[in-house]
Every structure is written in structure tokens, then in C-alpha cells.
Write a structure and sequence with these properties.
Blueprint lengths: L2 E9 L8 E7 L6 H11 L4 E5 L8 E6 L4 E2 L3 H13 L8 E6 L2 E8 L6 E5 L4 E2 L4 H11 L8 E5 L3 E9 H5 L5 H11 L3 E7 L7 E7 L4 E4 L3 H14 L8 E6 L7 E7 L6 E16 L2
Parallel strand pairs: 2-3, 4-6, 11-12, 13-15
Antiparallel strand pairs: 1-2, 1-17, 3-4, 4-5, 6-7, 7-8, 8-17, 9-10, 10-11, 12-13, 13-14, 15-16, 16-17
Helix pairs in contact: 2-6, 3-5
């Protein structure tokens, strides 16, 4: 029976139980895609990743990323967590710069510090931002149970497709009680992985509050979401909204589901490239044996 090294860790949190859990199967080259998908359904986390040998000479490692329902070309917390796991498992050297190979291409990874103090920052794929969509805003206003201007909603593809909505203030974000079946139906129609909302915080260590809802993938609310935060950063660069937050800011996500995640977001003012990152904490080390 094939046996693989297995890690489960929290991403975007320095302490266990505060971030977004990720399952990582190490050295998974013998597994095919359908088997990976079955494992991801079984772990029932928002994402499960599989570390593989790279196929490109300029990559340090390769990763495949699965939700319980589908494979994703890119996702933020799986990329950050997989880089951390690759270092901890000895798949790659703990050097300051790595290159991740995934279905979205080759992505630069910056590594700062070591051990429990290590932070990982991954550059997200370039975002394709659709123009503000009044029809989408109307549908989101219904699903989120809020009033929205016609310019508040965008579809943003940075690997997964997100439906992103600026709610203005963190208080509005924190107090949402959305219609999850309506969000699931909208995501299926639009081919989106989920709906992400954000708003400016009035105080505290974070500049922004973020929430992400992915009920079509079996995740009513994702605790902390790297690709959604990267999509928001790209949108702010595109619309000139970075003036409110700065080119480097901290986003808070997860309090509404009992977590306290922190996502460090940086946006290159010239190119618009977005990097997301933060801390990780390993909770489970063991083996995964497949019968």
C-alpha cells in the first residue's frame, strides 16, 4: 500500500486553530488526478494540496490544489501553506526565494525567517478584472442582503474566479448574514469559486476586513482566503482604491467563523502585481496510507 508523508497546518496564522487549515500530501507523484480529488473530498477541508516533483527546470517544486469539488489552477492559502510544508518536509531548501509550479504557471515565493517565525509570500497570477457589472451587483445585493451601487461588484479571475464586492466599511462586512443558497446558485451560473466582500476597518492592526463565501464547493464561509485577498488587491490597484489602504496593508479574516487570520498584502504600484502571505503553524505530522 502506498504511503505518503502528510501534514496539516494552519495558514495565515502564527498560532494553531486561528488560520485556515490545509492538508498537504508530500511526494504524491504516484497519485492521479481522480485519486487526488477523492482524497480532497475525504479531508473535507477548503483545500488539499499534493506536492510533486517539478516539470519545469526553473521551478523548485510543483503543487496541485483541490477543493472538495474541483481542482484549482491557483489558490492563495494552499500556495503559502504548500511552500511552508515543502520546506518543513525537506523537499526544498529554506532559501529566500523559491519558484512554485502550479497549473497557473510559475509563481515567485519569498521566504522570510525560519521555523515558527517563518513567513511565506506568494505572488498571485495576474488578475483579469471584468468591468463593473450592474447585473452582478443586483444579484449580489439580493444574495448578501445589502444595498449595492451598480459599480460595487466585479468578476475577477486570478486562477479561480471570484465575485468581489466592496461594502465600504468593515462593520457591514462583519455583520453580513448572506443567503448562502443564492450565493451557491450565482457561483454555479457564473463559474465562480465564491463571493468575497471587503470593507475598510476603523481601527486595530488590520486595515481591512474580508469575508469569502464558497457554498457551491461545500465551504459555506472560508476562514482565510489568499486568492480572494489577492483579487481585492488587484481590484484596488485597478480602480485607484489603494489610496485608502496603501500599497502594503494587513487584512483581517475569519472572526465570524471563530478564527483570527491575518493576510499580508502588497501591491506593486507600477505593475499591479499582488503578493499575499503570512505565518503558518503545523498541527499534524504523520503518514497517509492509501489502500
Amino acid at each position: 500500500m502506498p504511503t505518503f508523508e502528510f501534514l496539516q497546518l494552519d495558514v495565515f496564522a502564527a498560532r494553531l486553530l486561528e488560520g485556515n487549515p490545509l492538508a498537504v500530501v508530500v511526494g504524491a507523484d504516484a497519485l492521479d488526478g481522480p485519486t487526488m480529488q477523492r482524497i480532497a473530498r475525504w479531508t473535507n477541508l477548503s483545500e488539499t494540496t499534493f506536492l510533486l516533483r517539478p516539470t519545469r527546470p526553473d521551478a523548485d517544486y510543483r503543487v496541485r490544489i483541490f477543493t472538495p469539488r474541483q481542482e484549482l489552477p491557483f489558490a492563495g492559502h494552499p500556495s503559502v501553506g504548500s511552500a511552508y510544508a515543502a520546506i518543513e518536509a525537506g523537499c526544498v531548501a529554506a532559501k529566500p526565494a523559491l519558484v512554485q509550479e502550479c497549473a497557473a504557471g510559475l509563481l515567485p515565493v519569498a521566504v522570510h525567517g525560519r521555523g515558527a517565525t517563518r513567513t511565506i509570500h506568494v505572488q498571485a497570477p495576474p488578475a483579469r478584472i471584468e468591468p463593473a457589472d450592474a447585473t452582478l451587483a443586483t444579484a449580489l445585493a439580493h444574495a448578501l442582503k445589502v444595498d449595492l451601487p451598480a459599480t460595487a461588484a466585479h468578476a475577477i479571475d486570478n486562477g479561480p474566479l471570484w465575485l468581489v464586492c466592496d461594502l465600504g466599511q468593515a462593520h457591514t462586512v462583519r455583520t453580513l448574514s448572506p443567503d448562502l443558497p443564492a450565493i451557491a446558485a450565482l457561483c454555479v451560473v457564473r463559474g465562480a469559486v465564491g463571493v468575497s466582500v471587503f470593507g475598510a476597518a476603523d481601527g486595530g492592526d488590520a486595515a481591512m476586513a474580508v469575508r469569502a463565501f464558497c457554498p457551491a464547493d461545500g465551504i459555506p464561509e472560508d476562514p482565510v482566503t489568499g486568492s480572494a485577498n489577492a483579487a481585492i488587491g488587484a481590484l484596488l490597484h485597478h480602480t485607484g482604491g489603494l489610496a485608502r489602504y496603501g500599497s502594503r496593508y494587513l487584512a483581517s479574516q475569519g472572526r465570524e467563523v471563530g478564527r483570527d487570520g491575518r493576510v499580508e498584502v502588497s501591491v506593486d504600484a507600477a505593475s499591479g502585481a499582488v503578493a499575499i502571505g503570512g505565518h503558518c503553524a503545523i498541527g499534524v505530522r504523520g503518514t497517509f496510507t492509501l489502500d
